[in-house]
TrEMBL record:
This is Beta-1,4-glucuronyltransferase 1. PANTHER family: FI01434P-RELATED.
C-alpha cells in the first residue's frame, strides 16, 4: 500500500514539474515577443521618415451597420452574429500570430450574412495576385502571411505598396485584412504594436523621376529569410489562421493564384436566399459545402469573367481543368460534360447543379468550395513542400 502511495506521489510530482515547465516555456516566449516589441518602442528601426497615415479604425468601427433585407433574412436564418474585426496577438501552436494587424476598412464592420470572406495565405512574394483577386472578389479577404525573421520587414513593405501604389489600392485597403505569423524559433526583430504603427511603416511608390518603383514583392526569393534559413512553408497553418480571423458566416478557402468569377458573392447569397433547401439548417442534416469548378489558362490569356467566356476558351483549347496534367482526379467536376452543355436559365444566376460525396471515384478530390466556418480545420502537419494533398481536413 505504501508503495502505491509513493508511486502516485511521484506521478503527481512529475506532472506538476511538467506543468511548471510548460508555463515557464510560454512565459519565455511571451517575454521574447514583448522584448521584440520593446526594442522597436525604444527606437529599434523606427521609421521616422514615414508619412503620417491616419488610421480610420476608430471612426469606421463606430458607424452603425445598415443591413439589406436579404442580409437580415439570412442572418436570422443562419443564426449568425455580427462582430468587428479586432487586432489580436495570440499563440497558434508553435507560431505567434498578429491577427488583423491591418484590417480592411469595410471588412472590419461587415455583417455576418452580408458577404463571403475569401480566406487565403502566402508570403510576401504572393502579393502580385492580390490586386486582381480584390477587384474580382469585391468583398472581404482574409490574408495570412508567413513572416519569419526579417521577412516581416519585406512584408510590411509589400503591404504598404499594395495599399498605396496600385490602381486597385482603394479596394485592397477597403477589403483585405492582413495577418502575420512566425514560429517562436524565428522571431522578427521588429513587430508593430498595432495597426496605427504598422500604417506608419515608410513606403515609396515612385522614384525621383516619378517612375513607378518595382514592387517589393517581386524581389529575388533567394534573399528571403525563409529560404536562407531553409524553412518549409506551413501552408495549412496559414489556411487555418486566415479562417480563424473572419467575421462572416460563409467563407471561400482559396489559393491566392485562383481568380473568382465576377459577381460570385452576390450570386451565391441570392441563391441560398431564394432556395433555402440548399442549406443544412438542421443539426440532423449532413454537413455540406459548395464546390466550384476550377480551371487554368495560359499566363498571357485574358481571365474569363463568366461561363460563356470560359466555354469559348475551352473550345479553343486555351483553358483546361485545374491541374489536369498534374492530378486529373484531384479537381474533376462531377457531371463535367453535362455542366459544360448546361445553359443557365437566368443570366448571372447561380444554381445548384449536382450533389456528390467525396468517395469512390472522387475519393482523391481536392475541391475549392464555399462553406460555413464549421468545417474541420486543415491538417497542419502538411507543408507546401510535403504531401500532394495539401487540403487534408
Amino acid at each position: 500500500m505504501a508503495v502505491q502511495v509513493n508511486k502516485r506521489s511521484l506521478f503527481l510530482l512529475l506532472l506538476l514539474v511538467f506543468v511548471i515547465f510548460l508555463v515557464a516555456r510560454n512565459l519565455r516566449e511571451t517575454q521574447k515577443l514583448a522584448a521584440a516589441l520593446e526594442r522597436h518602442k525604444l527606437g529599434h528601426r523606427v521609421p521616422s521618415e514615414a508619412p503620417a497615415v491616419a488610421s480610420p479604425f476608430k471612426a469606421s468601427t463606430e458607424e452603425p451597420l445598415w443591413l439589406s433585407p436579404r442580409t437580415q433574412d439570412l442572418q436570422e436564418l443562419l443564426k449568425c452574429r455580427n462582430r468587428r474585426l479586432r487586432l489580436q496577438k495570440k499563440q497558434h501552436g508553435k507560431y505567434w500570430v498578429v491577427q488583423n494587424l491591418i484590417s480592411g476598412r469595410l471588412s472590419r464592420r461587415m455583417a455576418c450574412a452580408e458577404s463571403i470572406t475569401y480566406t487565403t495565405n502566402g508570403d510576401y512574394t504572393f502579393f502580385d495576385n492580390l490586386e486582381t483577386v480584390a477587384e474580382r472578389w469585391f468583398g472581404p479577404i482574409s490574408f495570412a502571411i508567413h513572416t519569419p525573421g526579417y521577412d516581416l520587414n519585406a512584408t510590411l513593405d509589400a503591404i504598404q505598396y499594395v495599399r498605396n501604389c496600385l490602381p486597385g489600392s482603394q479596394l485592397i485597403s477597403d477589403f483585405v485584412s492582413f495577418h502575420v505569423y512566425f514560429s517562436n524559433e524565428h522571431m522578427p526583430e521588429y513587430v508593430p504594436l498595432d495597426e496605427e504603427e504598422a500604417l506608419k511603416w515608410p513606403y515609396r511608390c515612385v522614384d525621383g523621376n516619378g517612375t513607378l518603383l518595382t514592387p517589393p514583392y517581386l524581389q529575388n526569393r533567394t534573399a528571403m529569410y525563409k529560404v536562407q534559413a531553409n524553412l518549409t512553408y506551413p501552408i495549412n497553418v496559414g489556411r487555418n489562421i486566415a479562417r480563424n480571423a473572419v467575421n462572416t458566416h460563409f467563407i471561400f478557402a482559396c489559393d491566392i493564384e485562383l481568380f473568382p468569377s465576377l459577381g460570385l458573392i452576390e450570386q451565391f447569397l441570392d441563391m441560398v436566399h431564394r432556395n433555402r433547401s440548399v442549406l443544412a439548417l438542421s443539426p440532423n442534416q449532413r454537413p455540406r459545402v459548395y464546390p466550384l469548378p476550377v480551371f487554368e489558362i495560359p499566363e498571357n490569356e485574358q481571365v474569363p469573367n463568366d461561363k460563356l467566356e470560359l466555354l469559348d476558351l475551352l473550345q479553343k483549347r486555351r483553358a483546361q481543368l485545374f491541374h489536369a496534367k498534374v492530378c486529373a482526379s484531384c479537381h474533376k467536376v462531377p457531371g463535367y460534360q453535362r455542366w459544360i452543355n448546361r445553359t443557365t436559365p437566368v443570366p448571372d444566376e447561380l444554381e445548384l447543379f449536382s450533389m456528390t460525396l467525396r468517395q469512390d471515384t472522387f475519393r482523391h478530390w481536392e475541391p475549392f468550395y464555399i462553406s460555413d466556418n464549421k468545417e474541420p480545420v486543415f491538417d497542419e502537419r502538411v507543408t507546401w513542400e510535403g504531401q500532394s494533398n495539401k487540403r487534408i481536413q
